[in-house]
Design a protein that fits this description.
Length: 327
């Protein structure tokens, strides 16, 4: 076979232009998938927030219905007691079966292996910085905690389980302030005042701003915080911040210093649902780090706003210094 025919059967190597075209197509597809995934995540978070809000609304409507129809309230309580009794019975049966199986296993192990020492769970103390107090030992207000300021700790309610949860205590009269983006213009700083009061034997949470907008109220801190974040997005017509609530953090109720001071109140041990935390005051303790979250920090909110604006018009706006490309 001649060299002319041999050259005709050689496969042609693809040019660099075709590779560039394929690379550009892949990059475009990746960008589209990233945007689609972000849109789905935002939609999922909105659905979860709506579920939380609907649950709280259902509880509120049920309480109102029980006020107008006491007989229905008694029936609901009896049904709840029956359900709780059935669940406790089922759980007791499961526990007894589990204990019997564990005891048989331990008996078999004890005959073949040496006994082990019981493990003790370590509960490490958390160190916090001291707070200025008066001659009686009461804290002096306001208490400056960085981006958070405590103006009043209020009064701890110990006989009602609605006024505390596993991670926080909700004292009546609690007041704190925080700097965050304004609802009129989220790029402008605004002071938000967080308060806890009592309404019909239940805690009422409120967030008020100094920009003249209406006060945000709700049955839980998460509802107030979620509504605040949603109004921030509506003011910008952009989803610059996730609406997943962190109400206890925004109010400052889970700050270590706040928890330590509330735990020193008389009767706070009677808050049966609250998980007790051990704190120790030390002058050498590090200051508590603020949450680097756009839903809590004004600085990180501005960072999120700048990044969202740049993504919408990268050819017009200047690229942020801390911007990270997704590709």
């Amino acid at each position: 076979m001649t060299a002319k025919y041999q050259n005709s059967f050689k496969p042609k190597r693809p040019s660099s232009v075709s590779y560039r075209q394929k690379l550009s197509v892949l990059k475009r597809m990746i960008v589209e998938y990233v945007h689609e995934n972000a849109a789905l995540v935002d939609e999922l978070e909105e659905v979860q927030i709506n579920i939380i809000i609907r649950k709280e609304e259902r509880k509120f409507l049920l309480r109102k219905l029980c006020e107008y129809e006491p007989q229905l309230c008694q029936e609901i309580q009896n049904a709840a007691k029956g359900t709780a009794l059935a669940q406790s019975t089922a759980s007791d049966v499961k526990k007894s079966r589990k204990k019997s199986s564990e005891s048989s296993v331990t008996e078999r192990r004890s005959s073949t292996s040496k006994p082990r020492k019981p493990s003790v769970k370590s509960n490490k103390k958390k160190f916090i910085q001291p707070v200025l107090v008066d001659s009686v030992g009461r804290p002096l207000f306001p208490i400056d905690l960085g981006r958070l300021t405590i103006h009043s700790l209020g009064d701890v309610v110990v006989d009602l389980p609605e006024f505390h949860c596993e991670e926080a205590i909700f004292p009546i009269g609690y007041v704190s302030t925080r700097i965050y983006g304004s609802l009129r213009d989220p790029t402008v700083k605004c002071i938000y005042t967080c308060k806890i009061s009592e309404e019909n034997g239940n805690p009422l949470f409120a967030i008020a701003s100094d920009d003249g907008t209406s006060e945000i109220t709700g049955d839980t801190p998460d509802i107030c915080h979620s509504l605040l974040l949603q109004q921030i997005n509506d003011a910008l017509s952009l989803n610059v911040v996730s609406t997943r609530p962190r109400g206890n953090e925004f109010f400052g109720l889970t700050h270590p210093t706040v928890l330590h001071l509330l735990q020193t109140y008389p009767g706070s041990r009677k808050c049966i649902n609250y998980k007790w935390t051990r704190f120790e005051v030390s002058k050498t303790a590090e200051t508590s780090k603020d949450y680097n979250d756009a839903g809590l920090s004004y600085d990180y909110l501005q960072r999120s706003i700048n990044m969202c604006k740049y993504k919408m018009a990268p050819d017009v706006l200047q690229k942020p210094s801390d911007y990270v490309d997704s590709l």
